[in-house]
Amino acid sequence: MAKYRAGRINEEVKKEISDIIRTEIKDPRLTAMISVVDVNVTKDLRYAKVYISIFANSDEEKNASFEALKNACGFIRREVGHRVNLRYAPEIIFELDNSIEHGMHIDSLLDKIKK
Asked: Which of 9, 10, 26, 98 is deepest in the core (most CB within 10 A)?
């Protein structure tokens, strides 16, 4: 039963953080497309590790978007606390997830092999 609850909390926090990033944050450094890949909230609901994927034209733009997200952690935490009915608003820890880019690279390599 506890595993089911943890999964529901993770998905709810993921949905809300994605919505906050998409609609609420007005930072001009957020020019890249950002997607929330996964969220892991600890059992005591104190920390939420958020795995994000950033699609940008350059590494410079990607780093600027990541820094803007890290600077908005407090705002995102407050909004998650208001939107999700939890005892504690978890501290947000952003981690960069490159799995989608890695998959695209492998796909391009497979296309080259076919040719």
From this structure: 9
